[in-house]
Amino acid sequence: MAHAHSNQTILIVDDEPINIKALQLVLGEEHNLVFATSGEMALQMAMDEPQPDLILMDIVMPGMDGFEVCARLKNDDRTRNIPVVFLSARWETSEEAKGLELGAVDYIRKPFSPPIIKARIRNHLELKKTRDLLENLSTLDGLTNIPNRRRFDEIFIHEWNRSVRNKAPLSLLFIDIDHFKNYNDYYGHLAGDDCLKAVARVLQSSLGRAADFLARFGGEEFIILLPETRENGCRYLAEAIRGAIEKLHIEHKDSPVADHITVSIGAVTCIDVTRCDRALLLEHADRLLYQAKHEGRNRVKSQTVPDHVET
To answer: 187 is in which domain, residue-wise?
Structure first.
């Protein structure tokens, strides 16, 4: 239907075509609707990307009933956060209690009243939006407003798998502010925080493509993931970043390297992801960063790992 949809999707699970039609008439104008006619099918569709924002499910179905489907959804990390609303003609308080204990967010009685089902569904979708927003906030670093380590771990797995599928190279930059402890001791923690924010801004603005991903790894360490990037591209970006941080001219009197803030960068490229190891790639970048520091800081050390990552 070509109506003004919210961009949220409702998965309707019912084995009776007539019930599906009735719900389509009531909810179809405001929302994207997808349908499953069995519990098994519902579980499959809940996993698919993009996931539904809400599941509206009949309890009584042949095969796997609504309770069983709900229990399975709540037992799986991938589908746990999708709100489930039960539709039921059988109206027993014990039934309702059972559904809510299984993690359903609401019960709607059949035959339903259109204005009421509309309002309740709208409410649950609003709540879902808010929860998603909070979930996203918990993956941002509070100080610099860029993604945090937790988010990096998720994206790293995602991009790694994408590189495997596309047979594409993957590069990684490990970036560390030189002598940052001295900076904090000399200028104080508030200045330290401002410095981290300024560095994060430069890093963010240096990224050229949507897929390039920056995160704060912890303390004064940042990490950048560069999908489909070979060593020369990776090294070029690393040098550009190193230069841009120097050009900030943030005074650092207590640095043995320069009179301003500088960074050291370890840059590693994996040409064939199927022959690399994800955890070892991080370690490798870390080792290159250590080398850059060891050789005097304010420099980039880069390497390609063609066959394997040396341990």
So the answer is: 149-305
Q: What's the DSSP call for residue 3?
A: S
Based on the fold, state whether residues 89 and 24 are members of the same structural domain: yes
- Catalytic member of 95, 96, 220, 228: 220
Q: How far apart are CA 167 and CA 188, in angstroms?
A: 47
Strand partners of residue 280? none
- The answer, as to whether pTM is greater than 0.85, is no
Mean pLDDT of 98-115: 89
Residue 154: count of CB within 10 angstroms of its CB: 11
User: Does the annotation mark 295 as catalytic?
Assistant: no
pLDDT band at 172 (very low <50, low <70, confident <90, very high): very high
* Number of alpha carbons in the 13 Å side-chain half-sphere of residue 143: 19
At 245-288, the pLDDT tens digits run 999 999 999 999 999 999 999 999 999 999 999 999 999 999 99
- Choosing from 136, 170, 186, the residue where a domain stops is 136
Measured CA to CA in angstroms, residue 284 lies from 130, 152, 169, 220 at distances of: 39, 17, 16, 19
The answer to whether residues 208 and 244 belong to one domain is: yes
Q: For residue 5, name the pLDDT band (cuts at 50, 70, 90).
A: low
CATH number, domain of 284, equals: 3.30.70.270
Distances (CA, A) of 99 to 55, 69, 83, 92: 13, 11, 12, 11
